[in-house]
Write a structure and sequence with these properties.
Number of helices: 0
Helix content: under 10%
Largest sheet: 7 strands, mixed
Shape: globular
Radius of gyration: 13 Å
Structural class: mainly beta
Distance between the termini: 38 Å
Number of strands: 11
Strand content: over 45%
Oligomer: single chain
Length: 126
């Protein structure tokens, strides 16, 4: 499995920006598509964004389209999530995930992701 470590999240005011990063190790990074998911208290883990192994294909949840951008730097084995125009409803624990099963796509299904980070808290104040 790929080991994934997310950067520290943080507290940001509504309308602000935050960039999360996730560094991978232990396997060849380009063998994996990467995704970001989030979970709020009392809710199921939800898809946020995904990117194929080349970076040529991306996918976003409707709730974040136009505000969040996923990218990857294969030379650094790192995936990023740039979050702009943050809203209080974006408050959640954010998880980085890796999929070897569907590396050429950018799947929104948590079932295809086989490696997960420990999660990082993002809190958006109103």
């Amino acid at each position: 499995q790929l080991q994934l470590v997310e950067s520290r999240g943080g507290l940001v005011q509504a309308g602000g920006s935050l960039r999360l990063s996730c560094i991978a190790s232990g396997r060849t990074f380009t063998n994996y598509a990467m995704g970001w998911f989030r979970q709020s208290p009392g809710k199921e883990r939800a898809f946020v964004a995904a990117i194929s192994w080349t970076g040529s294909s991306t996918n976003y949840a409707d709730s974040v389209k136009g505000r969040f951008t996923i990218s990857r730097d294969n030379a650094k084995s790192t995936v990023y999530l740039q979050m702009n125009s943050l809203r209080p409803e974006d408050t959640a624990i954010y998880y980085c995930a890796a999929s070897a099963k569907q590396r050429i796509s950018a799947s929104n299904s948590p079932a295809v992701y086989d490696s997960w980070g420990q999660g990082t808290q993002v809190t958006v104040s109103s």
